[in-house]
């Protein structure tokens, strides 16, 4: 995802330029780790708490995916919540962080602002 953003959106050549790739990779990985840990935690908790219901559905002929669909749906919702919340404050948090990374990487403040607006 970071390579696509750097290559297509920012049109950096080469796409592995550290001043672009490092801040974007950090943001992507940070969000992915948060979402993954929340979803796994929520899924395991839902499966443990709903074990009787899941076993009843399985005994009634439901497939594994049908029996666990409610727990999976809840886990996806929990995992997406931080990302959705970040979208509400993107101007307050992400712009300064991205611009700071660009400036530290050697870009001028005007160029850093231009790239941030594109994202």
What keyword list fits this structure?
single chain, mainly alpha
Task: Give an overview of the whole structure.
It is a single chain. By secondary structure, the chain is mainly alpha-helical. 83% of the residues lie in helices and 0% in strands. It has 6 helices and no strands. α1 packs across α2, α2 (18-49) packs across α4 (64-88) and α2 crosses α5 (90-104). It is elongated.
The fraction of residues in strands falls at: under 5%
H/E element sequence: HHHHHH
Mean model confidence by pLDDT: 81
Q: Compute the gyration radius: what is it?
A: 20 Å
**Which residues form runs of ≥5 with pLDDT under 50?**
none
Query: Termini distance?
Result: 13 Å
How many DSSP H or I helices? Answer: 6
User: Can you give the helix content as a percent range?
Assistant: over 70%
Sheet of most strands: none
Task: Lay out the secondary structure.
Layout: H1 2-9, H2 18-49, H3 51-59, H4 64-88, H5 90-104, H6 109-118
Task: Give a brief outline of the structure.
The protein has 119 residues and is mainly alpha-helical. The protein has 6 helices and no strands. The two termini are 13 Å apart.
């Amino acid at each position: 995802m970071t390579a696509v953003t750097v290559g297509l959106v920012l049109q950096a050549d080469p796409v592995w330029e550290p001043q672009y790739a490092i801040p974007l990779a950090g943001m992507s990985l940070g969000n992915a780790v948060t979402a993954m840990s929340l979803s796994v935690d929520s899924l395991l908790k839902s499966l443990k708490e709903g074990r009787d219901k899941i076993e009843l559905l399985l005994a009634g002929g439901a497939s594994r995916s049908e029996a666990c669909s409610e727990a999976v749906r809840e886990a996806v919702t929990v995992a997406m919540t931080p990302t959705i919340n970040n979208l509400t404050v993107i101007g307050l948090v992400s712009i300064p962080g991205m611009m700071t990374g660009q400036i530290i990487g050697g870009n001028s403040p005007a160029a850093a602002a231009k790239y941030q607006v594109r994202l």
